[in-house]
Amino acid sequence: MFNNDTxxxxxxxxxxxxxxxxxxxxxxxxxxxxxxxxxxxxxxxxSLFPAVSLQQLLKGKFAGLYVQEPSGEPxxxxxxxxxxxxxxxxxxREVYQSQPLVVLDGIPIITEHPFAFDIQQYExxxxxxxxxxxxxxxxxxxxxxxxxxxxxATAVYGPRAVNGVIVLSSKTPGAxxxxxxxxxxxxxxxxxxxxxxxxxxxAFRQRFYDQYTTNGRYSDDENYPIYLSDSLNxxxxxxxxxxxxxxxxALVYGINFGISGGTNRANFRFSLGDMKNEGVADxxxxxxxxxxxxxxxxxxxxxxxxxxxxxNRLDRTRNKNLRDRFAQINYFPDLSAPLPPNKDxxxxxxxxxxxxxxxxxxxxxxxxxxxxxxxxxxxxxxxxGVDYNEGYRxxxxxxxxxxxxxxxxxxxxxxxxxxxxxxATYSFNLNKVHDFQMEVGQSTQWNIYKYSNAYAYKxxxxxxxxxxxxxxxxxxxxxxxxxxxxxxxxxFLDKTRDNLVSFYGKVDYTLKEKYxxxxxxxxxxxxxxxxxxxxxxxxxxxAAWNIKKEILKxxxxxxxxxxxxxxxxxxxxxxYDNYAQGPQYTAxxxxxxxxxxxxxxxxxxxxxxxxxxxxxxxxxxxxxxQLNLGVDAGLLNNRLHLSVDWYNKDEKNQxxxxxxxxxxxxxxxxxxxxAVNNSGIDVSIAANIxxxxxxxxxxxxxxxxxxxxxxxxPRGLNEIIIGDKLLKVGQPVDQYWLLVNDGIYTSNDQVPVxxxxxxxYNGIPLQAGDPKWRDLNxxxxxxxxxxxxxxxxxxxISGGFDNNFRYGNWSLNLNFYFNLxxxxxxxxxxxxxxxxxxxxxxxxxxxxxxxxxxxxxxxSKYPLYNPWSTVIPYRVDQNLFLENASFLKLRTVLVGYDLxxxxxxxxxxxxxxxxxxxxxxxxxxxxxxxxxxxLVNYNGxxxxxxxxxxxxxxxxxxxxx
Length: 961
Hints:
Elements: H1 16-21, H2 23-28, E1 31-32, E2 39-41, H3 43-46, H4 54-58, E3 65-68, E4 79-82, H5 92-97, E5 101-104, E6 107-108, E7 142-148, H6 151-154, E8 165-170, E9 178-189, H7 198-212, H8 226-229, H9 234-237, H10 243-246, E10 250-262, E11 266-278, E12 285-300, E13 303-317, H11 322-329, H12 343-353, E14 357-375, E15 378-397, E16 407-430, E17 434-457, E18 488-511, E19 515-526, E20 535-546, H13 547-551, E21 558-572, E22 588-589, E23 595-596, E24 599-600, E25 603-604, E26 614-615, E27 622-635, E28 640-658, E29 669-691, E30 695-712, E31 719-722, E32 725-728, E33 736-738, E34 741-744, E35 753-754, E36 757-758, E37 760-761, E38 764-765, E39 771-773, E40 781-782, E41 788-790, E42 797-807, E43 810-820, E44 823-825, H14 827-833, H15 835-838, E45 882-884, E46 887-898, H16 900-905, E47 912-925, E48 951-960
Parallel strand pairs: 5-8, 26-29, 37-40
Antiparallel strand pairs: 1-2, 2-7, 3-4, 5-6, 7-8, 9-10, 9-48, 10-11, 11-12, 12-13, 13-14, 14-15, 15-16, 16-17, 17-18, 18-19, 19-20, 20-21, 21-27, 22-23, 24-25, 27-28, 28-29, 29-30, 30-42, 31-32, 33-41, 34-39, 35-36, 37-38, 42-43, 43-46, 44-45, 46-47, 47-48
């Protein structure tokens, strides 16, 4: 506990003697838990990457961990999945319930609950700051990162760990003085883009007019947009030089200072950090200010008191996307004319933002107070932990941005987790043969998620930017603005909470340091479970066999060989407290997103939750059954290390909304019974290829191959349709449901005719210029019955490839990241070609950003369909827009020089002094024709709204005294 932990620290359930026998094996590779396939890495190496968030740091570093980065906007939300998605990703609810647990020094980090999405129509961004909580982790304060993937490792963390666990351990104080300084500064390079203007757009559309109109002239079309019809209008048809105001070379920097010291009886560590990451597009940026304090005190030999406080402030400058703004305020102005590509006009538009503000701030604090007691072989600890984050978003948009309607809003929300954890361990050895370690634990967690959101329209002018309300909540006119009687005001308040009580027991047994057996039993009670099913009981069994000690003692080729197996069950928590209530009443949310309370004779009443769905009784716990088989080997004098794990995960009794009870007004019925299987293999290979005195080369490869399958649906159903997805038993849950496109009908004679009737799409006869959609069932009608399940939104294979070279004091690192077998829908291209149906309508699909004037994608690969056809030929639900999104990225090239020995020869006492230069996001090899195959949302659609992930150049230094 009191060592200066600058490399790796871990808790283990394996007897120290067994670990000592494999010292070389451990030192030459990432540390291994002999009961599990959990892997620990040194964050010293990871912190060289100028990442904003934890997800960016972990991407491609661990076998089985897949990270989605849908936008390069600093501080935006990113998703992580360990060994696949446990359920269909239908909405933000499912994404939230699929995330792994992140634990910092024993504190399970709380994230933002998606229940706030219920007050808005769109899922583009959560109300409030919508800032990535894990951007508040300063990697310079972290000593080790461990990814736990199977139940043998995750079971002790309870149901919140059912999707896997990422364990972060912070640097602990040392008995001697230590000063650290870490800093980097760099440049995020502006991307190269091709801009277009009205003349280009006219030329693009002219091809359709030439082919499908009588006179072939768009100028004769009375519905042609005005902003394109005048070719002499230099605002739209002149210079397209807007990119100078939208894209930029951006500054990135980070600095962290830490000091620790004390004695073996009392010591401390304190650090301060500052990080700024500017985005290369739309003026985005994230600033982080962090402070961390650890202290240990040991007043007597058997008593230890430890505490930690970690505080972070995140200030985020968000993008200015029209879509996000209009969706937030539930108001669509006249969309007949988009932003012009002219620099002067675009600059004047941006100045209108200066009349208002969009302030996004997030405060994060977590910490613990721990008391440990040690009496020989008996140890007891009790920990009180807290994790709290709060977000503010204050917005004002001037009337010039909304056609005379000013807009003001205020959001405040917080997420709080309190934890009381008690743990006791006892270990003993019988005859130096039988080794036992027993552990019992109890924990209680209290979670609260709360927000308050208010917005208002029609202020009297743009100089008064606040909404003044009556301050007395007992006044019947509480929501009536005091200063602005003409203003329209809406307010939302909501809170959800849940409690979790857990008990567990764990026994580890080692026989002759060759055979290992571990058994864990736990009981978990959740307030989100229904009263008849409050408790869930979970057994987990794991075993390991040290084959090296058993039968290969004298083998010099095999230095270590371990076989592992684990199997068990772990409960899955309901994320929403209303599932515990059964049938219920609620207020309603109208089409505008405003909360409306129905009335009867002027009295407010509550109604059934028709839009959310019917929730009945008899909902049991859902759970995960998992099996893991693994082997670890150290070969050739521990110069080659191999780890292979096969796993099978069955997620059972999961909830899903079944379309039902429409006759009673319900949209769906929330029922249990969905089962999803994920199976695959994790592979990690590390090789010390060359290890001479002046030159070295080491390489490591990690990859995961995962497949998923829907095993069951409620009521014994074989398939259901939810939105644009078909869920079919026996098929993967991440596939797209699409029509098969075989080209174009160039004449009416090519359209198949049966019994004198041409093929129809949903009752509309197909004609020349329409897509040639495949009639799979041969009924001469194209409809949902002709759609197929195809492609995968999640990669079949993902991983990373590292190469480290050393020459004297120089070092070179090359890091690659890859996804294979992954597809996406190029919705941005579908929208570009579907200009007839997207032009001028007052809805979110007609919004055109400034990037509308940017050439993206390969236009030549798409047939020239008749865009006026009522079958909507450029509809997105066809494989015409399905693309292979596999890629290989050279993510980092880093060159460093270790000055430690040089400075010591000059009598400068340093522990380490290392300088480096790096280039990040160097290049991408991919068949995808869009921007970047990573810039897609959770369901695999590239909407074009992901800001670019930039190429970044950095210079840095790491120093320890």
